[in-house]
Amino acid sequence: MPKTKKKDHLDFQNMTPQEQLKFEIAQELGLGDQVIEKGWRSLTAKESGKIGGLMTKRKRELKQQAMGEGTEEIH
Hints:
With 75 residues, the protein is mainly α. The protein has a domain at 19-66. The protein is 55% helix and 0% strand. The protein is globular, with a radius of gyration of 16 Å.
């Protein structure tokens, strides 16, 4: 029985918030067209790592803002 291969194309209508963030960061890095044309698998480990690192950073910043821990400091 042949294995089914997961489709690698992007479905912009049904993206989760995490997938939207991932694609947004890929676009910011100039990788959006490559991802659209060839899929996520076409990225190098370095490019994927950069996207993952920036996603983590962005999520951390959003979480801090939601908790009210903006950039304000009390002296």
